[in-house]
Amino acid sequence: MREAEPPPAMEEEKLQQLRSKVTELLLREEWRESIQAYSHFITLCQTHIPNTTHDPNHLSKLQKSVCLAFSNLAEARSRLKDFSEALRDCDEALKMESTHFKTLICKGKILLNLDRYSRALGCFKIAIQDPQANANSETLNGYLEKCKKLEFLSKSGAFDISDWVLNGFRGKSPELAEYIGAVEIKKSEISGRGLFATRNIDIGTPFLVTKAIATERVEDVISAKVLGKNSDYYGIGLWLLASFVNHSCNPNAKRLHSGDHVIVHASRDIKAGEEVTFAYFDVLLPLSKRKQMTTNWGFSCNCKRCRVEEGACCKKDMRELEIGIESGVDLGGVIYRLEEGMRRWMESRGTWRRRIPAMEAVVESVVDAVGSDERILKVFMEGVKRNGGGGGGNLVEMERAMKLGRGVYGKVMKKQAMRNLLELTGMNEQS
Ligand SMILES: C[S@@+](CC[C@H](N)C(=O)[O-])C[C@H]1O[C@@H](n2cnc3c(N)ncnc32)[C@H](O)[C@@H]1O
Fold it and tell me: Where does the source fall among the domains of life (predicted)?
């Protein structure tokens, strides 16, 4: 026997009760419960829609309720970061009312979160034409500007994180967009697959800015860890494209974490076709310690530097260097002695083009390998200060400092900001 349909008044009352309940859940920000309740509410409304076709007013009211419920459902899902389902809910709402203000804002915000800047811009552009936009014009214009800015950044890679760096990586982290520069994934000689440059990349140039696809954090925000500057780094994440970058003890790229994003820049000039590599750990360590580190990481390092240092040609020099580092811990002294040795060697032979000797290999493995290490920059600054500098030398030294600085911080720092930073570290005292 068919169950009798409830009279419209009763049905309306039931819906009203459910409506109050879901609104309360939403206001209390109980997202999971809101999702359940809204889904139930929508199903209930949808079963009643066929019974209301004879009453256009009632039908339209019901459809409006469903549209709003889908919109709120999307909001609740997006709060739980279920963006794909949330987008589907937005589209359901927009099917019923293509310019639904609340849904357009919600969809725009979701798309922004998913780094779909131009589609997000499209949503906000429609929303701003709604009369309700007047009361929210500041927020809406903010979103429009943000979309335009991020769209530009994702196309140009013209990031500037000067303020944040100069502020010691504290405070508001810079607004970043996903950006993929001239790179591709290919088979690597180091191990498995690797990331390769498809064009020459100048030192300091950011060529990959990407958001973590998964994070696990102890603190609310993953804070930046740049060479020990931020000791409060408590988080792990998976950055898909960056995860193809192999380790090298002579790396040519550097990472900088900002929120969920990682910015990758060239810490040395990278040639087209060259593999992009990171230092997974402190590569200023001597060979024996680095071997321990790679063992901890679960692999045996197959980078060029390790292969050279393991080779017979420079074992003696490397041993001396290791003893020097282990006993003296005077990093500056070691590096300067090595540079001095290299200079003398060059002078005695009168040319740079001869066969690369052991000492040069040693110097290269220390200075070149870790040139993007902030400690090297500091040692260099101290050396410049100690030696006084002066006259034309200043300019050359400043250029070297700028190059080292770009290796450390990247071109993501404006030139003037970089100058200020270097001056803060003491470069100005000699001018
Ligand atoms: C983040 S993945 C790099 C991408 C990896 N090659 C792939 O094909 O997916 C890190 C892994 O690559 C390998 N690897 C990275 N650098 C290496 C190196 N210098 N020598 C040997 N294996 C390395 C190790 O197996 C390491 O666990």
Answer: Eukaryota
Q: Which 3-state string (H, E, C) describes the chain?
A: CCCCCCCHHHHHHHHHHHHHHHHHHHHCCCHHHHHHHHHHHHHHHHHHHHHHCCCHHHHHHHHHHHHHHHHHHHHHHHHCCCHHHHHHHHHHHHHHCCCCHHHHHHHHHHHHHCCCHHHHHHHHHHHCCCHHHHHHHHHHHHHHHHHHHHHHHHHHCCCCCHHHHHCCCCCCCCCCCCEECCEEEEECCCCCEEEEECCCECCCCEEEEEECCEEEECCCCCCCCCCCCCCCCCEEEECCHHHHCEECCCCCEEEEEECCEEEEEECCCECCCCEEEECCCCCCCCHHHHHHHHHHHCCCCCCHHHHHHHCHHHHHHHHHHHHHHHHHCCHHHHHHHHHHHHHHHHHHHCCCCCCCCHHHHHHHHHHHHHCCCHHHHHHHHHHHHHHCCCCHHHHHHHHHHHHHHHHHHCCCCCHHHHHHHHHHCCHHHHC
pLDDT band at 375 (very low <50, low <70, confident <90, very high): confident
Domain-embedded: residue 1: no
Please tell me whether residues 104 and 181 are part of one structural domain. Answer: no
Do 293 and 356 lie in a common domain?
yes
Probe ligand 1: pick from 186, 238, 247, max atoms within 8 Å of CB?
247
What is the CB < 6 Å shell around ligand 1? 188, 190-194, 243-244, 246-248, 298-299, 301-303
Residue nearest to atom 4 of ligand 1 (CA): 244
Ligand 1: which of 299, 300, 305, 307 to mutate, most ligand atoms within 8 Å of CB? Answer: 299
Domain termination site, one of 107, 124, 155: 155
Is residue 3, in this structure, part of any structural domain at all? no
Instruction: Give the ligand 1 atom nearest the CA of 247.
Output: 16
Which residue's C-alpha comes closest to atom 11 of ligand 1? 246
Instruction: Please say which residue of 130, 155, 180 terminates a domain.
Output: 155
For 213-248, what is each residue's pLDDT tens digit? 777 654 444 444 433 344 444 567 778 899 999 999
